[in-house]
Amino acid sequence: MKRYSTLGLLKAGLSGHRDWPRAWRDPEPRSRYDIVVIGGGGHGLATAYYLARQHGIGSVAVLERGWIGGGNTGRNTTIVRSNYRQPQLQRLLEYSLKLWEGMTQELNYNVMFSQRGAVFLGHSDSDMTRLAERGDALRAHGIDAELMTRAEVARLIPVLDMSPDARFPVQGGLIQRRGGTARHDAVAWGYARAADALGVDIIQNCEVTGFSIRGGRVEGVETTRGTIGADRVGICVAGHSGQVAGLAGLKLPIESHLLQAFVSEPIKPMIDTVIMSQSIHCYISQSDKGEIVLGGDPDLYPTYSQRGVPMRLEEVASQAIALVPALSRLRMLRSWAGTTDMSFDGSPIIGDTPIEGLYLNGGWCYGGFKATPGSGRLFAHHLAGGEAHEIAAPFALDRFARGATIDETGAGPKAQDR
Ligand code: FAD
């Protein structure tokens, strides 16, 4: 990987970046790899990086049908936290959060991880009881969580409507101070550059269209750029998990739903934490560019289109304005949607499939960005050794058949039942 001195950087800038090297190569696919990872989002790229870095497996290709980070990795609202409800998820996401804390140094790439805190608001006595219980459970598992009084929330987020007759009156909150946001594209680019430097082939514009399977064992993939052989294949395609697994004849307990988000015009800093309300399911943060970033519930019908309904945006905007009335004066800059893979218990699926050598990492619903480093490292462990890491083991696909679901209420397709 070429590194520049300060003078070299200046020269490269003034010469219109003429000699600027590529951050990763653009190789032709080889006819065979030890491991093929399908999907060049954060999860696929992190998996490839850890395969090379942790397990010394350099014969790895990441096959991406479009451009890397063009899926949900580049479409999400970038909230990172580990304060989930279920202990299995707390463990997995805390493992991930610790990796986030060293990611910029590890990749030598600034992923702008900003631990500005993530606050759940409580709007009623029952909300506050649930937040207190969650905080106790988190601390019992060594995860930071502080219950906040109404006055503490008002001090931290002065722009909130704290009046008693507010549409969503605020009684207090629960903060994870180590939570926050990161720059999503940088995560994809950082993993891509580091994986490439370790010999991983990142192949864009290469769609997987089928699998070669013989005697119940995967032998490779069919792609728009030819057949590629592999001993092991990992699927990391988020909203397309059902579709890609379907190419191997598998039917997953996953529905693909749209999740929308939008940003306002950029303004001076006004919100320096992440505001979330699980009772109304609206989340608000401010990007480093100054845009107010807003998201809410998914659209209610399954689809692979990446165009959501305006009704959902209107709902999120009205909730956000009720929480922070000053937002009503902003103009919306742009909105977008991503196809998320909603598992039936709201938890991810990591591990074996019924086909030998074919592994799945999906079902992250609308919460997988925060899991990127942890998911990549745990999936790499599984792909390299053929056995689940103990943190990932509870998320096996066969849990649905065994009745061992991990019901993260409020995160699956029935998010509104929470
Ligand atoms: P992706 O980044 O989607 O990568 C999968 C890749 O697979 C894509 O690039 C796609 O092109 C490729 N692919 C698909 N089919 C094929 C094929 N046949 N052949 C080759 N390649 C293929 N999570 C959080 O933790 N915090 C948040 O704040 C948050 N907000 C969100 C907001 C929105 C609007 C959305 C849509 C999602 C949000 N998420 C959030 C969820 C998070 O973005 C995803 O769970 C996560 O990014 C999934 O990463 P990935 O690498 O698995 O998927």
Overall spatial form: globular
CATH fold node name of the largest domain: FAD/NAD(P)-binding domain
DSSP summary: helix tally: 10
Bound molecules: flavin-adenine dinucleotide
Largest sheet: 8 strands, mixed
The whole-number mean of residue pLDDT values reads: 94
Which CATH top level class of the largest domain fits? Alpha Beta
CATH superfamily descriptor of the largest domain? FAD/NAD(P)-binding domain
Rounded radius of gyration (Å) = 22 Å
One letter per element, helices H and strands E, the order comes to HEHEEHEHEHEEHEEEEHEEEEHEEEHH
Unreliable stretches (pLDDT < 50, length at least 5) are none
Which range best describes the helical content: under 10%, 10-25%, 25-40%, 40-55%, 55-70% or over 70%?
25-40%
Work out the strand percent.
Answer: 15-25%
- State the secondary-structure class: alpha/beta
Please tell me about this protein's structure:
The chain is of the alpha/beta class. It folds into 2 domains: 25-82 and 85-108 and 184-254 and 345-414, 3-Layer(bba) Sandwich (FAD/NAD(P)-binding domain); 118-180 and 256-340, D-Amino Acid Oxidase, Chain A, domain 2, CATH 3.30.9. It is 29% helix and 24% strand. The protein contains 10 helices and 18 strands. It has helices spanning 6-14, 42-55, 87-107, 125-140, 150-156, 184-197, 241-247, 310-323, 372-385, 399-402, and strands spanning 32-38, 60-63, 79-80, 118-122, 146-149, 172-176, 180-181, 201-203, 208-214, 217-223, 226-235, 254-264, 274-277, 282-286, 292-295, 332-343, 349-352, 358-362. The strands form 3 sheets. Strands 1, 2, 8, 9, 10, 11, 17 and 18 form an 8-stranded mixed sheet that branches. Strand 14 and strand 15 (292-295) form a beta hairpin. It is globular. The model has no long low-confidence stretch (mean pLDDT 94). The structure holds flavin-adenine dinucleotide. Flavin-adenine dinucleotide (FAD) binds next to helix 2, strand 12 and strand 16.
